Amino acid sequence: MPKLTHSRAVFLMVVVALMWSIAGVVTRHLEHARSFEVTFWRSLFTLLSLLLILPALQGRAVFATLRQSGRALWISGLCWSVMFTAFMVAILLMPVANVLVTMAVGPLLTALFARVLIGHRIAPRTWVAIVLAGVGIARMYGSQMAGLPLAGTLVALCVPVAAAINWTVVQHAQRHGQAVDLVPAVLVGAAISVIAMLPLALPLRASLHDLGLLALLGVVQLAIPCVLAVRCGRVLKAPEMALLGLLEVIFGILLAWLGAGEEPSMAVLTGGALVIGALVLNEILGWREQRWQSRSLQRS
């Protein structure tokens, strides 16, 4: 495939965020499929898509890579399966906006997990961002606890927790010279999700209309953007990826509002603004700090 320029990678990540964001509005138009069945079909279509996409991009050697990979890839795959499952179940239990804002704390949880588990230092600006994001989450849920299911809140929190564990495992493996290819890890996650969800999804009630929408989610909302995001990650720096990934929250809330009439409450908007603002401030300050350090090294 042709090499991405920086500007094209930025544009592609915006498209990726838009593709990720369609999950909420699409699920609101399902007829009969519910809960675990939704997760089963989306994961199945994702798995089938990746079984076609990966050999086309990386050749058949990608399957040999799976057999030869170490424990980190399989742990990453397990984390992906938890994220797939928890996200779809949470979307069906709670408003889209609540789920997306909860997911947005993933980068900050990753910083905490990396500090506790592998000893990464947390910059003061990140501690401030963590506190602000915590205030935002408390604001978002505090005024709604009576109207939101506790199960939905806990399931939604599984997504950023699994993401934080995933990235921490990947970082730890890379520090020890074991690079983890995230696209095959997504394939493993989809396979685990399909196997785990099938018994819970029975009896299957999805209509042809539902299957069309769930195929759209499996292919367009998950398989393709995950492959594209990994490719963009080879060009863009981590702060850029984090900031552009936040567009999923904005796009997702707008699409659910315009396409399904799911208007976010003021508590979600203000709490979400605190979370997003904390993340943006942290990433921008981190980006400027890295640029300043690189310039200082060049001068010396």
How would you portray this structure in words?
With 300 residues, this protein is an all-alpha fold. It has 14 helices and no strands. The two termini are 38 Å apart.
> What gap, in angstroms, lies between the N and C termini?
38 Å
Order of helices and strands: HHHHHHHHHHHHHH
Low-confidence segments, given as residue ranges, are: none
What's the alpha carbon Rg, rounded to whole Å? 19 Å
Q: Into which percent range does the helicity of residues fall? A: over 70%
Number of strands: 0
In DSSP terms (H or I, runs of 4 or more residues), the helix count works out at: 14
Strand content: under 5%
Question: How would you describe this structure in keywords?
Answer:
300 residues; mainly alpha; 14 helices; 81% helix
Describe, in short, the structure shown.
The protein contains 14 helices and no strands. The protein has helices at 6-20, 23-27, 35-58, 61-68, 71-93, 96-103, 106-118, 124-142, 150-175, 182-201, 208-232, 238-245, 247-260, 266-299. 47% of the residues are buried.
Itemize the secondary structure elements and their pairings.
Blueprint: H1 6-20, H2 23-27, H3 35-58, H4 61-68, H5 71-93, H6 96-103, H7 106-118, H8 124-142, H9 150-175, H10 182-201, H11 208-232, H12 238-245, H13 247-260, H14 266-299
